Amino acid sequence: MLKKKLLLVLLVVLCLITGIIGIKKLLTPGKETLKVTLGQQEKSLAMTPHLLAMEKKFFQEFWAKVEAKTYSGDVTPQEALARGEVDIVIMSLADFLYYRFGNADLIAFAAATTGEPSFIMAQEKMPDFSWHDMKDKSVIGALPESTAGILLEAVLRENDLAPYRSVNVIYNVPTDLKAGAFKAGSSTYLQTCEPMVSLFEADGTAAVVGSLAHKNLPALVYVTNRQNIMQHPEKIQRFTNGIYKAFLWMKYHPEKIAGSLKQDFKDFEQDILPTAVNRYLNNKIWPKTPQISEPAVAEFQNMMLTAGELPQSLDCAEAIEQKFGKTALEKVEYIPPGQQKKGLKKLWPF
What we know:
This protein has helices at 2-27, 48-55, 58-61, 77-83, 93-102, 147-158, 175-183, 196-203, 226-231, 233-252, 257-260, 272-282, 294-307, 316-319, 323-331, and strands at 34-40, 64-70, 88-92, 106-111, 118-122, 138-140, 168-170, 189-193, 207-211, 220-225.
């Protein structure tokens, strides 16, 4: 008798689930999963928004199957976009503006960061550090045409320090040799990002004395081309929805971010990843929404012009498409598990 009752209960639950799935399909007529291909360079912690959206299956909630392709060497993500190999690429803001100058079809539609994720480190702690302390000193910096390099030069100029004259900016040290060069005493300061920042602090090699995140800059942006926006807007919208849901999840679960990224950063030491994530959170590297700040882009464009890294100014409004971010803000929500209604709501995910 007990087995019959149990079987009956299971049948009722199965019918309920089947009915809910059927209703969901009726409420989303013609909805099919779209494949979206994302081109990226070497994976970095700053890319957390789309890495989390993939790990937590947020893209799938919006009927998108996102596949990330990593490009290195001779082929860049933007070249893959031009060939039609990918739908979207994640680019530094400097690269986007530079390539946009030669290709007006490139459109940025969402921000991955709202701060430049690099820091200034010194051989010892400097609790009262000011940018003027760098006068007549040297710093191993990023490439001069990179977002980080352009921003460092701009901050130095703002503090009446002429790059390469008042401060010796060393930019020709390969990335894999920067740590060794700094440890050997080749410079007083080092500009670098995670995980090197946390590794150096952990072993006592250096200490963070300054940050470049204060500029509220969309240092990394998601980019597509005009053809994709016209012909496949739903792909772009579903991708943006997933990114925004990742931002919302990060807001409510900052303590879970590092744990959710373990598979993406297996090479990080166990205690380094949480430290690195917390540093980025404390410096507000990641934004609250995917919308791109046009004034911030225009300000950075002026920095590029001053640095001689852009031939002439661009129309920032034409280079940025805001509608996908606006739609995501209107339609996407995240309700933390503790605030969700009990019972049938758990079976009703839409």
